[in-house]
């Protein structure tokens, strides 16, 4: 119809108003359940939707559902099942439909199922059960809902828990493995404690006697000894002294534990000054100089951190270059956790203290930067640089006790730099 005149336009408006009113009435009727079909007009054709087509769409959804769907009578008879449940049981539809649901419930779960089934008539309920499978029980999660009063049946949805149980089994085995390791660790710690006791008493006592008698020989009978005997006694004293140093370092390493020690906030400059005082003789004899740069405070186990500094400064003195006095630079500063990538490796805290100690010593190849922190790991012969190879292992352990990280960067004859990051504790 060509719309041109005023009368034609008004007529068109009335037609649209009537159609709109009819549509409103149809929508109200659908909402009230008074009609079971309605049409939707498109530009090209019309589509009819009925309650039957809605039921069909719902049926398709249930049929394609990747979970088991059942409809069971009050007596437990299966009057409907979707294909997935048959697939789960690996049984044809004909063997499932019309059977009792209890025929497929594993005997270990029968009592639990009956309780859930009876309870479902009053309220929806859920639970974990086992079905009877060809290769053993099939773990499932079952949800039951009574369809009364519309239908005298119970609707059941079944979820396969096989993969979930496999994951739980893996986690359980891992937990059992972890528990065994923890028990072994307790035994090892007990053995370590016994070793510490032996080292501090039984080993040191005969060692002291060896040193004492060797001293008597060299003191009272030295002039009467042959040249070879003097050499042997001297080597014996050197070996005894190395043994004493080794026992001392092992005891320090064994006692460097975190539990039961208290953290406190300390100004690192004061801590370094105390260490400098303790090492005054070594610093004087070697001509070493300690240079302080920026220093901040840190949350530390004070006596352990002092041991860390003693070991690092002593290393710088020991591994100094010939005819070149050690020059040690120490600095620390506060860093916010979001400022560098390294912060995320320290701890989930807002800030941490970054501590750096550098020297001008002989250095080492960078490829050994991790190995130097291992117990008994040495990069030089005993004759060149005496030591037990435990000093830096103690440093590493102390840093771990502070929930921190340590790294070393070096090059031959270019000195060594140690970077230590320690989180600030939560009470700050």
Automatic annotation (TrEMBL):
<dbReference type="GO" id="GO:0005524">
    <property type="term" value="F:ATP binding"/>
</dbReference>
<keyword id="KW-0418">Kinase</keyword>
<keyword id="KW-0067">ATP-binding</keyword>
<dbReference type="Pfam" id="PF13426">
    <property type="entry name" value="PAS_9"/>
</dbReference>
<keyword id="KW-0175">Coiled coil</keyword>
<dbReference type="InterPro" id="IPR036097">
    <property type="entry name" value="HisK_dim/P_sf"/>
</dbReference>
<dbReference type="InterPro" id="IPR035965">
    <property type="entry name" value="PAS-like_dom_sf"/>
</dbReference>
<dbReference type="Pfam" id="PF02518">
    <property type="entry name" value="HATPase_c"/>
</dbReference>
<feature type="coiled-coil region">
    <location>
        <begin position="6"/>
        <end position="33"/>
    </location>
</feature>
<dbReference type="InterPro" id="IPR005467">
    <property type="entry name" value="His_kinase_dom"/>
</dbReference>
<dbReference type="InterPro" id="IPR036890">
    <property type="entry name" value="HATPase_C_sf"/>
</dbReference>
<keyword id="KW-0597">Phosphoprotein</keyword>
<dbReference type="InterPro" id="IPR003594">
    <property type="entry name" value="HATPase_dom"/>
</dbReference>
<dbReference type="InterPro" id="IPR004358">
    <property type="entry name" value="Sig_transdc_His_kin-like_C"/>
</dbReference>
<dbReference type="InterPro" id="IPR052162">
    <property type="entry name" value="Sensor_kinase/Photoreceptor"/>
</dbReference>
<keyword id="KW-0808">Transferase</keyword>
<protein>
    <recommendedName>
        <fullName>histidine kinase</fullName>
        <ecNumber>2.7.13.3</ecNumber>
    </recommendedName>
</protein>
<dbReference type="Pfam" id="PF00512">
    <property type="entry name" value="HisKA"/>
</dbReference>
<dbReference type="InterPro" id="IPR003661">
    <property type="entry name" value="HisK_dim/P_dom"/>
</dbReference>
<feature type="domain" description="PAS">
    <location>
        <begin position="54"/>
        <end position="124"/>
    </location>
</feature>
<keyword id="KW-0547">Nucleotide-binding</keyword>
<dbReference type="InterPro" id="IPR000014">
    <property type="entry name" value="PAS"/>
</dbReference>
<feature type="domain" description="Histidine kinase">
    <location>
        <begin position="198"/>
        <end position="426"/>
    </location>
</feature>
